[in-house]
Amino acid sequence: MIKQNKIAILCNYELLPERVGGMDYFFWLFDTECKKKNISVDWFFPNQSNHGEYSKLTILHSDNHNIENYFLDYLKVNKKEYSYIITHFIELCTPFFYKISKLTFAKIIAIDHNPRPLNGYVLKKKIEKKVKGILFSRYIDLFIGVSNYTVNQIIKDFGSHLKMKTNTIYNGVFIGDIHIRTKRKYFKPTFLVVSHLRKSKGVQDLIAAVHLLPPTIKNELKIDIYGDGPYKNELVENIKHLHLENCFCFMGNKPNLKELYSNYDYMLQPTHMECFSLSILESLAANVPVITTNVGGNEEVIDNGVNGFIFDVKNTLELKGILENIYLGNLNINTNTRILIENYFSLMKMVNEHIQLIK
Question: How far is CA 1 from CA 5, 6, 204, in A?
Fold first, then answer.
């Protein structure tokens, strides 16, 4: 008999003390709420860490080897009986899910956090995904997208036959420790970027847009960039080439970002691809409006002109116009952006909806 109170959660998500984000808070609270309901959770991560609340979790780690192979080996050796196996940041519809089905009677729930390429997949990749959808989607009992955009992409990628077992659970954030901006400047406001520094995050478009601004604004404008990544050196060289060193400051990764949003008037996120951004939710929870692109689930949370501004992805001229008008006080946001997050995108709402999947 399968024990109904034992689940396994696989997360291809590296645990880093210097990068504590929304998913870390989700994992901690989900584990706490499961224990209250007598649900025992085995967490499978690539690495072990005790920062934050991770010391309270039962973690089995793959020592940074392939986590899917590690989990399959673990099942074979330990003969564990789980009622549910839930995956985060694991590729969908692969032979891995077929192999799980041969080792357990557990129900499989796959959570999709993965953004899609701006121009879609190449034809070969599209065909591969359709074939995988036919072959392996039957071994996943439920697909969860973190936005309606994500759900539509799952169906587009793997086939319309998945409509009946695909649902949306929006990401949420813990707002209790997010400092709130109480007064917003409507003339010469301050800006921040929160982003992993890779090309798909579009920071190069922001640099190009700033370069187009009048010299009087460029001489004063300050944008702090929080985050790190493989594209940082190219961004730095680009800034130097355009003589914009006074406009941008790289702040690196900060573990206390939730305290820092409130130091700014607007967040900029010129991303090319996104599922549903936690940094957007955190910024709004700090009462800091967001300027971002029309990709992924961004327009499911940003209401243009109400709690932020939307521009066409890669349209540096449009972004330049928004920046210029905001800086000069011609455009502004008067809404308390925190209210939306409190009502619709709280971490507890997200956790409760995930727990409801376990019946």
Answer: 12, 12, 56
